[in-house]
Design goal:
This protein is of the alpha+beta class and about 100 residues long. It is built from three helices and three strands; from the N terminus they run E-H-H-E-E-H. The mean pLDDT is about 90.
Length: about 100
């Protein structure tokens, strides 16, 4: 029987929460420029999905920098299927690239 599961990763960043939030909220189109080794293009996909997969990014101010937390909620078809840890690694790499980009610009 399928069950809903959740995993999270949090990254400390030197960039301000406002700038980081702006990238994720309003400037996702910059992702291919920010991290071309990870993101080739950004598209809005519409449609019905058969299984549950939802990602949420929250950005919180922390001193002069920020904390960025990715939460992944997904449908796990059974207990034998491993958690999608690679998505957390991907999110962590995105965070590092965004931070490096913002510190330069």
């Amino acid at each position: 029987m399928a069950q809903i599961a959740k995993i999270e990763v949090q990254t400390e960043m030197k960039s301000s929460a406002d700038k980081v939030y702006d990238i994720f909220k309003r400037k996702m189109y910059l992702m291919p420029k920010i991290c071309p080794e990870l993101v080739k293009e950004v598209k809005l996909a519409k449609g019905d999905w058969e299984t549950t997969f939802k990602s949420t990014v929250s950005v919180t101010a922390s001193g002069q920098g920020s904390l960025v937390k990715w939460t992944l909620i997904y449908e796990k078809q059974n207990q034998n299927i491993p958690d999608p840890e690679k998505y957390l690694e991907f999110a962590s790499s995105i965070n590092k690239s965004v931070d490096a980009y913002l510190l330069k610009h």
